[in-house]
Amino acid sequence: MWQGVDKRRFPRAEYPCEVILIKKGENKKLSTHTENIGTGGVCVILKKGMGRFYFVELTIYLKDGQPPIKCDGRVVWAIKSREQFDTGIEFINIKEKDVRRIEKVVEECLKTNHNSLDNQ
Length: 120
Prior knowledge:
Elements: E1 12-14, E2 18-23, E3 29-38, E4 41-46, E5 55-61, E6 69-81, E7 84-92, H1 96-113
């Protein structure tokens, strides 16, 4: 994982959960997991690189016992790491109630583990 200075607008926490990703205009589903998550976006692990500015549909399965979060996203960066790609996706058209769910998960992770990525 990249260890540089984090200049994100939203705090993120290391929080592994399942994500289903569909590239807009395609029917192929990619099942993956998060590296970290925040209210503004998510970092997922992909086997193949995806170019910047690709639009995707996301289904995120938080471990909070509620239905998955469904929203759109846009790839904003991708970094090759060994045989995979760490891929940053910005949320688009996410419901406010889902933002609050993510915020709660991040706050709990930060309280419990102190794994904030905006302090590294």
